[in-house]
Amino acid sequence: MVVLKPGQKATPDELIGFARTRIAGFKLPKTVDFIPELPRNPSGKVLKRELRKPFWEGRDRQVN
Questions:
Q1: Neighbouring residues of 2: CB distance < 8 A, sequence distance ≥ 6
Q2: C-alpha angle 2-7-45 in degrees, rounded to nearest 5
Q3: Which of 62, 41, 37 is CA-nearest to residue 52?
Q4: C-alpha to C-alpha distance for 38 and 4, rounded to whole angstroms
Q5: Predicted pLDDT at 24
Q6: When comparing pLDDT for 3 and 62, which is higher?
Q7: Count of alpha carbons within 13 Å of 44, Cβ hemisphere only?
Q8: What's the rounded Cα separation, in Å, for the pair 10 and 45?
Q9: pLDDT tens per residue, range 17-63
Q10: What's phi and psi for 38, nearest 5 deg?
Q11: 14, 34 Cβ separation under 8 angstroms
Q12: Which of 3, 12, 38, 49 could form a disulfide with 32 if both were Cys (CB 3.0 to 4.6 A apart)?
């Protein structure tokens, strides 16, 4: 999940290419999703459960 700064542009291929030069191949992201903002709780922590929710829809258990 990526939140771009105002006025910035990027494509998923550009971001994966950037990461390819800096990290090992097995750590590269397979996909890049752009979202307007990260969901946060009142104290400012990122709600990871909310970020994962779309990927677990339609499954009985939230386990790989």
A1: 10, 15, 32, 33, 34, 35
A2: 40
A3: 62
A4: 11
A5: 96
A6: 3
A7: 0
A8: 25
A9: 999 999 999 999 999 999 999 999 999 999 999 999 988 888 888 77
A10: -80, 135
A11: no
A12: 12
d(CA 19, CA 9): 16
Split at pLDDT 50, 70, 90, the class of 14 is very high
| Size (the chain), residues | 64
Residue 51: Cβ within 10 Å count: 14
Q: What tokens does 56 get?
A: 């677990």
User: Of the candidates 50, 36, 39, 44, which has an alpha carbon nearest to the alpha carbon of residue 5?
Assistant: 36
The pLDDT value recorded for residue 63 is 79
Q: What amino acid occupies position 41?
A: N
* Tokens read off for 61: 């258990």
